Model the fold of this input.
Amino acid sequence: MNTMTPAILAATTNLGPKFMLIVPEAVLFVGAVLCAVMGLSHVRAFRALVPWVAVVALIATFATMLKVWTPEAATAAQLPMPMLGKYIIALLCVVGVGHVLASIGSVDRAVERQVASGTGAFDPVRVIQGEFYAFILLSLCGGMLLCHATDLVWLFLAFELCSLPTYVLVAIGRGADRSMEAAIKYFFLGAMSTATLLLGFAFLYGATGTLELSAMRESFQMQAQTGGIGSVAIVGMLLAVIGICFKLAAVPMHFYAPDVYEGASSPVAAFISFVPKVQGFVTLIVLLGTVGWSANGDSSIPPVIAAVLWMIAVLTMTLGNIGALLQRSAKRMLAYSSIANSGYMLVGILAGPTIGIDATLLYLLTYGVANLATFGSLAAIERNGHEVDSIDDLAGLRVRAPMVAAALAIGALSLTGIPPLLGFWGKLDLFVASAESHQRTLLVIMALNSGVAAFYYLRLVAMPFVQEATPRTQGVSPVPSVWPRLSALIFAAGCIALPFFANQLKGEAAAAARTDLDKQATVAQSVEK
Amino acid sequence: MTLAVLLIVLPLAGAILCFGVSERAAKTVGLIASLAVLAVATLLAFEFPAWTTGAFWPNEEGWKLFTAFGVEFRLGTDAVGVLLIVLTAVLIPCSMLVSFSAITQRQRGFYAQFLFMESAVMLAFLARDVILFYIGYEFTLVPLFLIVAIWGGHDRRPAAIKLWVYSFVGSVISLVGFIYLAAGHATDTGTPINFGVQTLVEYGQTLPASTQWWVFLAIMGGFAVKVPFVPVHSWLPLAHGEAPTAGSVVLAGIVIKIGQYGALRFAFPMAPEGALALAPFFAALALIGILGMSLVCWVQNDVKRLVAYSSIAHMGLALLAMFAFNVVGMEGGILYMVNHGLSTAGMFMCIGIMYERYHTKDMEVVGGLMQRMPIWSVFMVFFAMASLALPGLNGFVSEFLCLLGIYTADAGMKTGFPGILGPTYAFLAALALVLGALYVLRMLQKFVFGPLREPSHGHGGHDSHGPHGHGNHAAHAIHDLNFREIVAMAPLAIACLVIGIWPKPILNVIEPCAANVVAPYVKLIERDLANRPRAAADVDAITATTAPTAAKGAIQ
Done:
């Protein structure tokens, strides 16, 4: 603990400011507990309220966050990136509400129907709805807590709080053998990636002798001045990056994504294509912040790590897009698309703190909204009571479910990056970031990739609107609950309406990307002197 | 500014309104909306103060929506833009009129797509910010794709997909060029990123030649797909072949013009050195296009594809003339945009009207229509002659100017304006005129004149029509043009005639705009010549560009 400065001591001992900031997460946690309990109630009306408890909890979290998360409070809590949490919590709350709405009616349908018709009695063992929404909220809670991390332990715990519920969600969301298989695959690979991440953390600890992010940063700066950052730290960082890649569904840890998404129910697939990405990118941003990004804008990630990230970005977007071209299953295609989108977002990470991070954060939002519009549309239709999976099932959808078809098409066009939809602005920002950081090759590769992507996203527009209905699509109809449809529609409308607030969104993302690490280091040094 | 905004918002509102009315009323609503846009466009043309100055108007910044991205909502256009806006505003209601009987299914969507497209096209022509332009340019793709894919012919899906992928990749490549330029500007000057056209033009011209080479390659390479240049042209005949009549009219008349407009407005001014360095390459591509496509036309039996291939050849000539980088050539290229828009749109309308009656586009199957539909034949021959550049019609003026520009753009010729092109290029391009005469006359001979040939009852054998059932034409006699169809085509024919007989006003307004585009090139070519031994005499020749102007005066 050679760099234990008074400022850091203060940060570890004076937990008051930190507790102030986690009030929103506490609210969400209470909501999760309420969901879990109410889901077991014998009163049917109570059980029906569970999703709405989740929605209210998310809204309350959002409101609390707005109240407590002031720049002063965040600085007092000595967070490495003071306003990151505000952005991420807001994002997770808003998109989270959409995920909750998209999943209404998808769990416990058979059981509830039996209870309603009087053919079966209510049995708390047979229902899972309470757990389902509780786990959604807990996972979101974990994602939010990541932003509070000032040391590796907190980072890891929040990371796991975000991950663990998703494994369960995959398993329980659909109640089919395939989802069990998917859950097991997801869980074991996830456990492996977590182990890799933890190993990386251990190496980082070994290299710096501290778990504190700011102390670690000081140590790295010292190392950099005296002959470069040691190889132990580099290996540690690389291991951590590889572990995070699993969450991003980035190469080389992307293989699970199509299988798991296909096995999971559509609302769950929507969830795990977004929330773990937020989780992964926040962790990556926080971690890389320690190795050398400085507030004055030069991105000095050690060259080895930059090179590895560059390769990961290129491979991820290329393999993702090529993989998506070959799919006939809509969910598998969107899984590959989610892989490709991770590749794009890594470009922003590579571009560095002042020009790239805000682009990545903005893209997370644009992706989250468009992705939910697309996946939500899939969740809003069924074929003979089963989930719609094949792209062929979407033929002629505009006749059977015009609103869903429109939402699907708008979501897909936004993911393609057709201006003036929301997705375009996210892509534009990433393009600009890569050009400004002189990553010309990356810029061209990205552009060509979005050309490839335009081809497969087009199917989601052409199938519902151009193709005529086939005998196969006779059984396709909207799901009984209206909420998944509405959720898809609201977020599709968001793809159209949010560009009008592009300035504000970009401003929030830029504020979130601001880092205080250097300032803290200076303060710490001055206190030491 | 209000008028400019109205031009973009009005069609959008009309499109949304189309979805709100009944299936039967959609065509009326669509037509009224497009006529309203035409009225606004006419008003804009009357208000436009900069006809003879080449300046941009209103060039004002509107909503500050995207300033954080460096995108200004700045609208403004010069005389060329106004001409294209009026052309668009005329073509859209005309193409709607010819669709009244042809489109029987999903009419609401059909007319809405045209209005969406009109809105996007207007935005592209009005934008003074490259991203704003890109929004309009790229968004035209969505309605165009749907028009071809939903209301198109038998093989409409592959055609629509090809259209989508080619155009998307092309425009993304242009976007990369723009972003590279804007990012370079931001880094070099330390200012926040800015996509304003003026900023980028000023910055682009200061870049070293090697950088400009890449910038021009990216921007022009993207537009080349839309124009289209030869190796990337194959989407166009396919799309034309399958598109419904109105779709073809709009595609040929407006959408591919955005590519050329983009070259004129962005590629040429932003990277002059790159343009000069790459001119031989693009000129060669254009020549290959002109000659190759003319030969292809010669053996086409599908009339619609013939016109599609011929329009690749024509656009090649227009671009070739622009690459001559003198005022005459530039002027010819710009006028060609307008003229080609009028005459090709007219031809596509004629063919569409014929197709509606016979359900075939094969001139081996149907022909000698003069005897059956005399009024139709008059229009067909008229537009074909306009496209063939018959003196007295509009095509002649632009084609003559183009060839004049290409011919005189030779460093060695003291009478002309130096450049990299010259008599050789002009000779090869003129060869295409001969070929053009051959294929157009062959088409007219088979299709309009000669013995009457009509498909027999089961007309499906040669060219199967789309899924939207047409009545069996054999049941009722083929009738000539009705009033509606004449009204749709007459404005185009009148415009062709007026420009052909009295081109002076339109040339006068184009000239300052052309001079603006050429201005940076004059200096560059002077510099190049100054480095040569026999510089002095040539420089005199350049600065006095009297010869081409005099020649131009002769045809006015």
User: Anything to note?
Assistant: The longest strand of chain B covers residues 57-61.
